[in-house]
Amino acid sequence: MKSTTKSLPTEEIGAICAEWGLKIDKVRRQGTVLVLEPAVDTALPSAEALAGLAEAIEVEGVRYVTLGLGGFASQGGRR
Predict the structure, then answer these.
(1) Best exposed site among 24, 44, 61, 68 by fewest CB in 10 Å?
(2) In total, how many domains does the chain have?
């Protein structure tokens, strides 16, 4: 991971996610964790793509990037 960090707006995080094949509905932060909530009508990217995505998103104070899937399956998300 690169050593420089910055504060990214939600729109920019969404654009980075789209580059890695992930369409997101929401971005939220829980302490040092950035939680990305995927859109219901999208398939999840591969593990390799998710690793690249986590490395591409550098946000000040964030140590981890994860997917929030709580509403995904219950709302008909694809597997």
Answers:
(1) 61
(2) 1
For 30, the enclosing helix (H) or strand (E) is strand 24-30
Q: What are 11-27's pLDDT values in tens digits?
A: 889 999 999 889 999 89
What is the C-alpha separation between 19 and 30, in angstroms, rounded?
Answer: 24
User: In this structure, what is the dihedral angle of CA atoms 42, 43, 46, 51, given to the nearest 10 degrees?
Assistant: 30
Joined tokens for residue 50: 């998710």
d(CA 33, CA 77): 23
- Structural domain of 42: 10-74
- H, E, C per residue of 21-54: CCCEEEEEEECCEEEEEECCCCCCCCHHHHHHHH
- Does the pTM of the predicted model rise above 0.90? no
